[in-house]
Amino acid sequence: MSRLKQIQNTWFECDGKSKVEASNKLVWGLKDELDLSAVANDFLSVAESFGIYFANKTVLDVGCGYGRITKQLKRRNAIAIGVDINRSMASLFSAYVNTKLFLPYDGISLPIRSESVDIVTSSLVFKHIPREYLYLLWKEIYRILKRDGLLVFDITNLYCLSARDYEISFVEPAVKNYQQHVVHYYSSEELRVVLEQFIGFRVHWMFPHDGKRILSQFDHKPYQWYVIASKT
Fold first, then answer.
1. Taking the mean position of all CA atoms in its chain, how far away is CA 228?
2. What is the DSSP letter of 170?
3. Which residues face 228 on adjacent strands?
4. Which stretches make up the Methyltransferase type domain (predicted)?
5. How far apart are CA 93 and CA 145, in angstroms?
6. Who has greater pLDDT, 222 or 114?
7. What is the pTM of this model?
8. What is the DSSP letter of 157?
9. The Cα angle at residue 159 between residues 154 and 164, in degrees rounded to 5
10. I need a labelling partner for 127 at 20 to 30 A (CA). Which of 25, 84, 156, 223 fits?
């Protein structure tokens, strides 16, 4: 059962005073679901604006969760596969995406044969992975991609931080990559060096992105980078 259906069922089971008390919570739950679906669609639409299409392609979504990106890929007629470190997501994924193409993995080693995937996507995931593990995961992604296959992802932008942000208790440790913190920030220089020189990708596009639109380098505090790279 999808999250939207669960929200609807909860609403219809309420009556009178209970429905009034539950209404605000249900409305925000529905809004959250619709917002995430829109963000997933926007993420893929940016790639499409650069001439990247997903129809009839084998596409792996890394960190798929319950399948918000994967469902949008399926709507685009991709052969969409989801992988996630959280095995408990399998049943949610199956219900939401209406497919059983979910693979659990250990966070680094992908259970997929070499050179078998056309495109790898990942949104709102890589920023939570410590650097040394993320670099290894990128090497795994390189392994499973076909020649000229694409990696499309977003990741937190170091340049979005102002001097004042460093006064917030969790920001400076996160930038310094302390393991107990869950968000890691990257400069464009670091991303290019790691992806191109350390792993072997060719970075075609890297630009500031706010989740919905491409930003110029002069826009204020773009939250993340949108990156499109290919296997050479």
1. 13
2. T
3. 152, 205
4. 60-153
5. 23
6. 114
7. 0.77
8. B
9. 125
10. 25
| Distances 84 to 5, 25, 174, 199 between C-alpha atoms, Å | 23, 28, 23, 22
* Cα 31 to Cα 39: distance, rounded to the nearest angstrom: 12
| AA letter at 1 | M
- Reported as a single tens digit per residue, the pLDDT across 49-63 is 999 999 999 999 999
In the block, which residue shows the tokens 């429905």?
A: 19
Residue range 169-227, pLDDT digits in tens: 555 555 555 445 567 889 999 999 999 999 999 999 999 876 554 444 444 456 789 99
Domain boundaries, the chain: 39-231
**Among 43-57, 107-121, 167-181, which stretch is predicted with the lowest mean pLDDT?**
167-181
Structure tokens at 163: 């001097």
- Range 39-70 burial, b when 16+ CB lie within 10 A, else e: bbbbbbebbeeeebebeebbbbbbbbbbbbbb
CATH class of the domain whose range is 39-231: alpha beta
Where helices occur in the chain by DSSP H, the ranges are 3-13, 16-49, 68-75, 89-97, 131-144, 171-175, 188-192
Q: How far apart are CA 208 and CA 156, in angstroms?
A: 10
- What are the distances in angstroms from CA 13 to CA 6, 10, 18, 95? 11, 5, 9, 21
In whole angstroms, give the CA distance from residue 76 to residue 67.
14
